[in-house]
Each structure stands twice: as C-alpha cells, then as structure tokens.
Write a structure and sequence with these properties.
By secondary structure, this protein is of the alpha+beta class. Strand 1 and strand 2 form a beta hairpin. The longest helix has 11 residues. It is globular and about 40 Å long. The mean pLDDT is 81.
Length: 105
C-alpha cells in the first residue's frame, strides 16, 4: 500500500511525499520518501513504526534533519521545532507551520 500527496511547507516549497507500507505476518513498517524540486528524492529518517503524514510533514518543516539518537517520531519533531523556533520566548512560534495548524499549545 502506498500513500502519495503534495505538501507545501512554511517556506512555500512544494514537496511530493510518499509513504510505502511493508507488511509481514508479525510486523508493519512505513517507509517515507520526499521529492524536493531542487534537492531530488530523499528518504526521511523517521521511525517506520510510528509515522504518517503529520510526522513526514513535520520532518520537512524541521529542515530534513538527520538522526540524532534515533529515528524521528512525532514527539521528537515537535520538541525539536519548538526549540528551533524559541518556544520559551514565543509559545505561538509553531503557528506558521502548516503541519501543526491543528496543534493547540
């Protein structure tokens, strides 16, 4: 199974996103690919076990980060983006990120 969509990030860049599912009798993994208009295709270092559209879109907003101590997941990306955007100084700093438009502080 595959999920494909387009996502325009807060910088106005249109990305083509893919999530491919690999199922085994005892396991399910999701693999994430982003097609950037200038950088080409890249595999997102996102946990294959806890993921989906929101996580991939946040990974894009975070600037396509490489693994720090493990594959990225939703709580890690939210914390990373909050720190990157000076959360302590402005609790509404994440409001301009489309993937977090529904997130309540």
């Amino acid at each position: 199974m595959s999920d494909n969509w387009e996502y325009t990030c807060s910088k106005g860049v249109l990305h083509k996103c893919e999530v491919d599912e690999e199922c085994e009798p005892d396991n399910r993994k999701l693999f994430h690919t982003v097609h950037h208009p200038e950088r080409g295709s890249m595999s997102a270092d996102i946990s294959p076990y806890q993921s989906g559209r929101e996580v991939l879109e946040l990974w894009i907003e975070a600037g396509y980060p490489h693994r720090l101590w493990g594959a990225w997941n939703l709580p890690m990306l939210i914390a990373y983006l909050a720190g990157k955007n000076n959360w302590s100084e402005n609790p509404n700093c994440l409001d301009n990120i489309p993937a977090l438009s529904h997130w309540k502080h």
